[in-house]
């Protein structure tokens, strides 16, 4: 079993959990590949039985890794998708952060989870990606997102004017701080905090959610994920940003953006005792009686 490891930082109190993971993987036949910048962070904190191989880009693991462990929070897991791409490598999220919608394995559950992975006791969730198309190829080859695309202003003194079309039919002109186009996975992220609906991971939809709309009757709308969404930002505010998950670029007004479903999906590994509804109940404290 060849395993890739991705992370960005290690809290001193969490080092023992990562050490336990490394020790466990050392007992499993196969190679361990560690993201090179993360290996530098691990040096001095983690001891290795056998020196791991290092990687820094997708091509170095796409044909060899059976699984990729993301160590951190949901933001860390989002960063893995540019390393996994269309390779189909299942991503396993180990939550060292707080909420952890995507990173479903707690640090206390690492060893039992590895045992279940070895025994093939898991399910694979195929998560839809969205793709951004611009004439200047704004994000290069990594023009896709697992959570959302966000257009937003930088200046607090003015609003954006965002014209939006669905399959070339005019939807609305949003006067707002910004606009979110979210996948089902992203419906529990930024879109949710802007009153967007939660939709299940297997829903074949996108959610278009305004950020602080000037018109209070404007609400999020759910559209089919085979739709082509076209966005044009207008106005005098030239300091406008667009984000794909955690990646950000500055854009000029009048830049036309096309958003559609990506041709491939990301595989998220889930343990047998996990499901979407259980996750949102636990993370959002649904059904919790707070009267006592």
Task: Label this structure with key terms.
18 strands; 292 residues; alpha/beta; single chain; Tumour Suppressor Smad4; 6-stranded antiparallel beta sheet; 6 helices; 2 domains; 37% strand; Rossmann fold
Can you describe what's shown?
Strands 3-2-1-4-5-6 form a 6-stranded parallel β-sheet, sandwiched between helices. The protein folds into 2 domains: 3-120, Probable inorganic polyphosphate/atp-NAD kinase, domain 1 (Rossmann fold), CATH 3.40.50; 128-263, Sandwich (Tumour Suppressor Smad4). It has 6 helices and 18 strands. It has 292 residues and is an alpha/beta fold. 17% of the residues lie in helices and 37% in strands. The mean pLDDT is 93.
Question: What does the secondary structure layout of this molecule look like, with pairings?
Answer:
Elements: E1 3-7, H1 15-26, E2 32-35, H2 36-42, E3 53-55, E4 67-72, H3 74-84, E5 91-95, E6 105-106, H4 110-118, E7 122-133, E8 144-145, E9 148-153, E10 160-166, E11 169-176, E12 178-182, H5 190-193, E13 205-211, E14 221-224, E15 229-234, E16 240-244, E17 247-251, E18 256-271, H6 276-283
Parallel strand pairs: 1-2, 1-4, 2-3, 4-5, 5-6
Antiparallel strand pairs: 7-8, 7-18, 9-12, 9-16, 10-11, 10-15, 12-13, 13-14, 15-18, 16-17
